[in-house]
Amino acid sequence: MPSGHTHDRITLWSLPIVTSLSYGLINSTHLTLFVSGGFLFSGLMFGPDLDINSRQFQRWGWFKWLWRPYQTSLNHRSFLSHGPIIGTALRLLYLLTWLGVVIVFGLIIDKLLGLEWSILGFVESLWRSLSLHYQEVIALLVGLELGAMSHSVSDWSSSVYKRFKTKGLSSLLPKIKPQKQRRKSTTRKSTSPKVVPPRSRRTQK
């Protein structure tokens, strides 16, 4: 598996390629910035290696404690953290859960102190803004997934190369389990001669 430094270099080297392809496909500068920004953020801070004490985890600084429950709930390199789409979706859902906790806590403070600034109004305005700029949201999500996939693909290719280097071409072929042959049960005929019991003789008077 590549080190954290190697993953960072892969992200930075891949950024110009992702930016060029994005602009060529969508022909939009600001949407390309969202794709590239999402790719860079996912590769450096929001990638699959948040399930361990990695560089991505350390970059969260004071807020890295947010990912402790995430790490204890998942095994490293499991499908839920490194799988396509589901890994990014689960991390987003996890982060949105923490955001929900903050919103509930803010509503309680707002109710107790009677503040003029309402956090519920802030959430409603944020939702309206996201609905109006749905294209930017989609571009950001695509960038996040591309950043995560660059990480997972590099992990997978490194593992395949190591297996090929040690075991050769046979390590790349699917393993076929040999089928167990069933033994035919044969009834053996007894070759020993049959013993006929002697007839009882009658005594003559």
Describe the structure.
This protein has 205 residues and is mainly α. It has one domain (4-170). The protein is built from 8 helices and no strands. The chain has helices spanning 4-26, 29-44, 55-58, 68-73, 79-82, 86-113, 119-132, 134-167. The longest helix is centred in the C-terminal third of the chain and has 34 residues, at 134-167. It is globular, with a radius of gyration of 33 Å. 19% of the residues are buried.
Q: Write down how many β-strands occur, each being a DSSP E stretch of 2 or more residues.
A: 0
- Continuous helix count: 8
Query: On the 0-100 scale, what is the average pLDDT?
Result: 81
User: In angstroms, what is the radius of gyration?
Assistant: 33 Å
Q: State the major sheet.
A: none
Unreliably modeled segments: none
**What would you call the shape?**
globular
The number of domains = 1
Secondary-structure element pattern, one letter each: HHHHHHHH
Beta-strand content: under 5%
Strand-pairing-aware structural class: mainly alpha
The rounded distance between the terminal residues' Cα atoms is: 106 Å
Roughly how much helix do the residues carry, as a percent range? 55-70%
